[in-house]
Q: What sequence folds into this?
């Protein structure tokens, strides 16, 4: 049965990989800005070097394959080998609840794994590569090592087995995470009013501070874990508000055409 499932695994991996690549290149192209003079840039006056931009793109293409493979292995274990919790019967309510449950579960998984990767034992060996991109740009989101992905992105394998969620809904969550992660590395505050503190929703500023200040702001979707554990940067709320205000200034509107 394992060998019979191999073609299905390969086909699923190829399909998920193609989706992730398409979103990466379209969203990256739309949100890429490396102009240090841009008025609404979170880190004004700074730009990522061209070699590092190319490095991030090449590494992301490799990284996304490993993420697609992990997602697909989980899908095959669930759908072909019937391992894990059965998804709730499909309804508007069950889809919404399971999506939110997966958001909370991933936020928890990522927060604690991310903190672990910032420990002295693991940081230089595994996670340092991602932090070499400073300031980050939209292409930096998936510039991670394989080991890094085994810690942070293995959720997409495990979630098929531990969360009662339909595979299609889980895929939509992954695509949302992918899209928001790319925008979250763009270096420009695109969050809008939904991120206005004390909203629990993460902003671009949240992760930009993580790259700048290192030991803070670990979670991907929400600020809840960072607030509870005291790892939210002390200037987070004030800076989010300031960056959102700067996006509304007339000078910012003009500078976007030069980004």
A:
């Amino acid at each position: 049965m394992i060998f019979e499932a191999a073609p299905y695994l390969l086909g699923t991996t190829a399909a998920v990989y193609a989706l992730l690549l398409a979103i990466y290149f379209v969203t990256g192209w739309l949100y890429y800005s490396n102009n240090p003079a841009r008025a609404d840039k979170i880190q004004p006056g700074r730009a990522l070097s061209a070699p590092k931009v190319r490095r991030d793109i090449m590494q992301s293409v490799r990284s996304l394959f490993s993420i697609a493979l992990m997602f697909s292995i989980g899908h095959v274990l669930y759908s072909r080998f019937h391992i894990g919790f059965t998804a709730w019967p499909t309804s508007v309510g069950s889809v919404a609840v399971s999506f939110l449950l997966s958001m909370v579960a991933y936020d928890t998984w990522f927060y604690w794994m991310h903190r672990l990767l910032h420990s002295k034992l693991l940081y230089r060996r595994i996670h340092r590569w991602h932090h070499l991109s400073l300031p980050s740009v939209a292409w930096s989101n998936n510039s991670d090592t394989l080991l890094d992905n085994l810690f942070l992105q293995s959720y997409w394998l495990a979630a098929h087995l531990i969360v009662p969620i339909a595979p299609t809904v889980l895929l939509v969550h992954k695509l949302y995470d992918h899209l928001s992660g790319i925008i979250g590395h763009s270096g420009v505050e695109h969050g809008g009013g939904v991120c206005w503190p004390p909203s629990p929703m993460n902003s671009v500023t949240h992760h930009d501070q993580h790259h700048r200040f290192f030991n803070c702001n670990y979670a991907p979707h929400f600020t809840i874990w960072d607030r509870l554990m005291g790892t939210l940067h002390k200037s987070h709320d004030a800076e989010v508000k300031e960056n959102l205000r700067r996006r509304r200034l007339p000078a910012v509107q003009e500078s976007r055409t030069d980004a």
Notes: The chain has one domain: 2-254. Confidence is low (pLDDT under 50) at residues 250-258. Residues 2-31 form the longest helix (30 residues). Residues 2-254 form one domain.
